[in-house]
């Protein structure tokens, strides 16, 4: 998907992911941070360059690098993917941040910007989020958003080490968006 979407607010700026971001992204990635992803850890510039090239080339995916709005520091990456406009649905994920941005305003800010774009500009009715069942940190973050737990797809993913993982699915519908938006705005107000 060739996208030119740029989103900014709440201290972050999301711009289209590019190969030039690979060195900074690779420097923040390790096995623990990458836990629950379905591709090998891209912890070298070469591996991250391949990862970014794949993300950029994937049909129906808008991949972003997350920057600090004031300083331009690379904080991580996130995507809207499996985008099917005719069905008014998209998934939000493939998200990772450098550890110093865990637990603060970065993730809620990015989620707010991406969801606001999806629901209010792109006309999406259903936004899904998913995580490996072993990834407690991601599951807690998704739950805190107010997303509805839909179920578990058993042995849905093969991890880079060959193990099979269950995928936990959540969703937010357009009619639920105002409540989710208000929760995110309240969290960001607390962080400020």
The fold-level CATH name is: Aminopeptidase
- Give a count of the beta strands, DSSP E runs of length 2 or more: 8
Report the helical percentage.
25-40%
Shape: globular
Number of domains: 1
Strand order of the largest sheet: 1-2-3-4-5-6-8-7
Beta-strand content: 25-35%
Quick structural overview:
The chain is an alpha+beta fold and 192 residues long.
What does this structure look like?
With 192 residues, this protein is α+β, with helices and mostly antiparallel strands. The chain has one domain (7-191): Aminopeptidase, CATH 3.40.630. The protein is 32% helix and 33% strand. It has five helices and eight strands, in the order E-E-H-H-E-E-E-H-E-H-E-E-H. The chain has helices at 22-28, 45-57, 106-121, 136-145, 177-191, and strands at 7-9, 12-16, 62-68, 74-84, 89-97, 126-132, 148-158, 164-173. Strands 1-2-3-4-5-6-8-7 form an eight-stranded mixed sheet, with helices on both faces. Strand 3 and strand 4 form a beta hairpin. The longest helix has 16 residues, at 106-121. It starts with 6 loop residues before the first strand and ends with a helix. Residues 13-147 form the N-acetyltransferase domain. Keywords: Transferase.
Outline the fold blueprint.
Blueprint: E1 7-9, E2 12-16, H1 22-28, H2 45-57, E3 62-68, E4 74-84, E5 89-97, H3 106-121, E6 126-132, H4 136-145, E7 148-158, E8 164-173, H5 177-191
Parallel strand pairs: 5-6
Antiparallel strand pairs: 1-2, 2-3, 3-4, 4-5, 6-8, 7-8
Helix pairs in contact: 1-2, 3-5
Keywords: Transferase
Protein name: Protein N-acetyltransferase, RimJ/RimL family
Domain N-acetyltransferase: 13-147
